[in-house]
Design brief:
Layout (H helix, E strand, L loop, with lengths): L2 H32 L12 E4 L3 E8 L4 E8 L5 E9 L18 E3 L4 E7 L15 E12 L5 E11 L3
Antiparallel strand pairs: 1-8, 2-3, 3-6, 4-5, 4-7, 7-8
């Protein structure tokens, strides 16, 4: 075997090994991409944080922007919830009355919980719509009357939620 043939064989082995390594790395990256490892939405944690006296027990959002929210209340008095809003633009809370005839208020004893439904709005103040897996980040507001003292208050909170259905 001549010196030139050995150099050619070494060069061919070199290219083959590095070419194979590059193909393997590319295959691994494609597999990771297909598994969603590079999708930042996969790592966004959902949260619902309310002001003192209220706690989000569960929450979910449909693709049409309808929020289902179970809230517990531990304020110092029973309350009558007369509206819930879900919004991005703080200039418009879009508080809507719960559908609870005859007066469309929901009475909550201290330590009780209730389920509310609210249409969420985007930054243009139009009803939010999205696809399953999309993230909605905004605020929530609960309008209520203290049943003992009779004064009106609005409790607000932050919401980051993935559309689930």
């Amino acid at each position: 075997m001549g010196h030139t043939t050995m150099k050619q064989q070494a060069a061919l082995e070199y290219l083959t090994m590095y070419g194979l390594a590059i193909i393997i790395i590319a295959a691994v990256l494609v597999a990771l991409f297909l598994l969603g490892v590079f999708n930042p939405q996969q790592f966004v944690s959902q949260q619902c944080a309310m002001a003192g006296g209220f706690q989000c027990l569960s929450y979910s959002m449909a693709a049409n922007g309808m929020l289902t929210l179970v809230i517990s209340q531990s304020t110092i008095s029973p309350i009558e919830v007369n509206g819930v809003g879900c919004y991005v633009n703080s200039g418009s809370m879009n508080i809507e009355a719960p559908n609870n005839p005859p007066n469309n208020e929901i009475y909550m004893q201290i330590g009780s919980n209730a389920t509310f439904y609210a249409q969420c709005y985007n930054s243009a103040n139009v009803p939010f719509t999205g696809s399953i897996g999309d993230i909605y980040t905004g605020s929530i507001a609960v309008s209520y009357i203290n049943s003992v003292k009779g004064y009106h208050e609005i409790a607000t909170g932050a919401l980051a939620i993935k559309i689930s259905h």
